[in-house]
Amino acid sequence: MKSIMIFLASIILTVTFTACSKKKSEIEPLPFRMEVFKNDIPFPTEKYLRIGYSIRTWEYAKDGLALQEIVILDNTSKVELMRIEKADLPKIHKNPIPANPYFENDIISSYYLSIQLPIPLNQVVPSSVGHRFIFLDTIHNQGVEVEGAVFSPRIDAHPIAISSPVKGTNWIFMNQSTNAYHYNTMFFIDGKIGTGEKYAFDNLQFNDSGEFYIGDPVKNDSYFNYLDTLYAVANGIIEVLQDGLPENDGNAQNITFNTAIELAGNHIIMNIGGGYYAFYAHCHPGSFLVQVGDSVKEGDPVALLGNSGNSTAPHLHFQICNSKEFFMTNGIPFVLKKYTKLGEYGEPPITPVVISNSMMEEMTMIFFD
After folding, report:
1. Pick the residue with more confidence: 168 or 22?
2. What stretches of 295-365 show up as alpha helix (H) in DSSP?
3. Which residues pair with 146 in a beta bridge?
């Protein structure tokens, strides 16, 4: 059985490079405090209501403080909702921002991180959430606790609901219901913060033995999802279409890039109304069934799944944002109108359960009509 965990750890769109940096505009310094500066609409899965948000803090390392744990609290009752230990802390964005050959990074004067707080569906959502950051004072060798970043979850708002961009059985959507990978990606450019990938997913398709390919892993035809049809997730208009970029050979990652947007490979950006844009990345070259300006209806075929761009194997990278920029935009949480849960990857199958207006957890096996 091929290990999905290897793929989960390596599937790529996020930009990471080691070129020289050009430092630019400095963002306003933050006092000794921490605050929630992005409070996203919560989205349900079959297990949790996932509350996503981002925090800005002071540059605590300059005070000799090393972050050890984050405790998330019901700010009214002070009951612990979640504890993130040192080994599982989210990515902390701080100076120096890792350099890349495509963007000129800002100098930032705060630390930034993103958290998804999972509240069980049978549990009341707190009206106020706070945080306790637990530090080691490395100068005096003692513990320090700082509380703050209080906010109210947006429990009266609902995420956008879409149809699935793929059909068929034995799918897993990955990286969307987690604190890791896409969710913690941020870009700091020209005084703005880009979080386009924040709620993105990648997908794989398996056979009944739990394998996502058979044969030579450097051949695209070995993967079960390769050349699957991709569908319009809503009524919309095709606003951007990139075609003609080459594909990687299976998991070889053997193509190079000249611009940042080539990391997305062949792709579509579809205006689906309400200020929302659906992004389909890594498509197969020459497979598009639409053109720029075309109006499409929900469920129309638009392209074939491929392996172009910054990809470790054939898959669809999909995200919804509030503009047609790919990186310097805001990723938007969303749910699927309907899917059938078949079980959890690596666990015995269950009696199929139809679930509506929900996203799935990362290891949920699913079926789409």
Report:
1. 168
2. none
3. 133
Name the strand (E) or helix (H) holding 8: helix 4-10
Residue pair 214/206 in contact by the 8 Å Cβ criterion: no
Find tokens 């106020």 and name the residue.
Answer: 128
Confidence at residue 21, expressed as pLDDT on a 0 to 100 scale:
36
Residue (of 52, 57, 50) closest to 31 by Cα position:
57
Q: pTM for the full model?
A: 0.91
> Quick one: average pLDDT of 309-338?
96
Name the DSSP letter for residue 141. T
Q: Where in the chain is the domain with CATH 2.70.70.10?
A: 160-368
Quick one: tokens of 317?
Answer: 């990278």
How far is 72 from 65, CA to CA, in rounded Å? 19
Residues whose CB falls within 8 Å of the CB of residue 77, separated by 6 or more in sequence, listed in order: 126
Across the range 205-223, mean pLDDT stands at 95
pLDDT tens-place string over residues 37-76? 999 999 999 999 999 999 999 999 999 999 999 999 999 9
Q: How far is CA 286 from CA 107, 227, 245, 308, in A?
A: 41, 11, 9, 11
Q: Supply the pLDDT for residue 98.
A: 87
The reported pLDDT for the residue numbered 11 is 56
Spatial separation of the C-alpha atoms in residues 323 and 340, rounded to whole Å: 31
Exposed e or buried b per residue across 218-253, where buried means at least 16 C-beta atoms within 10 angstroms of its C-beta: eebebbbbbebebbbbbebebebbbbebebbebbeb
Residue 125 has pLDDT above 90, yes or no: yes
- What is the pLDDT at residue 99? 85
Q: What distance in Å separates the CA atoms of residue 31 and residue 109, rounded to the nearest whole number? A: 10
**CA 312-242-8 angle, 5° bins:** 20
17 pLDDT above the threshold of 50: no
- Walk across the sheet containing 65-74 and list its strands: 80-84, 65-74, 129-137, 142-151
Write out the residue limits of the CATH 2.60.40 domain(s) in the chain: 18-151
* Mean pLDDT score across all residues of the chain: 91
Beta bridge partners of residue 36, listed in sequence order = 55
Strands 276-283 and 295-296: unpaired
What fold characterizes domain 18-151? Immunoglobulin-like (2.60.40)
Name the CATH topology of 160-368: Glucose Permease (Domain IIA) (2.70.70)
